[in-house]
Amino acid sequence: WKHARGALAGIGNPQQYHPVPLTGRIQIMNNGSLLIRHVLEEDRGFYLCQASNGVGSDISKSMVLTVKIPAMITSHPNTTMAKKGHVKELNCTARGEWPIIIR
Q1: How confident is the model over 11-62, as pLDDT tens digits?
Q2: Domain assignment of residue 31, yes or no
Q3: Which residues does the UniProt record annotate as the domain Ig-like (predicted)?
């Protein structure tokens, strides 16, 4: 298995692919499937499966893994103060899959 990130990787650009690092979280199963446990944002991208058996040409197929990130609030004040009669802006920022609606 090989992995590539970026828009051009899946358009027949094999130099963009690098071997998938096999760790306790990522492993190749006995049937050749790639198993990714606890998927991370950096796992997104193109994956290339290659097969050969010495008879005929080697074959390969690519697929795209999209990782959906739930909305997470990244900053907000726990407490804030305002003077009576003044204007006060309360900020809340979030990250995750777009669109994010803050209300």
Answers
A1: 556 568 899 999 999 999 999 999 999 999 899 999 999 999 999 999 999 9
A2: yes
A3: 1-66
Collapsing DSSP to helix, strand or coil, 42 comes out as: helix
| Structure tokens, 64 | 């795209």
Q: In this structure, what token pair is assigned to residue 74? A: 């990244």
Q: Residues 72-96: pLDDT tens digits? A: 998 877 888 999 999 998 888 999 9
Beta partners for residue 14, in sequence order: none
What is residue 36's DSSP assignment? E
C-alpha angle with apex 98: 68 to 5, nearest 5 degrees? 50
Spatial distance between the Cα atoms of 3 and 58, rounded to a whole number of angstroms = 18
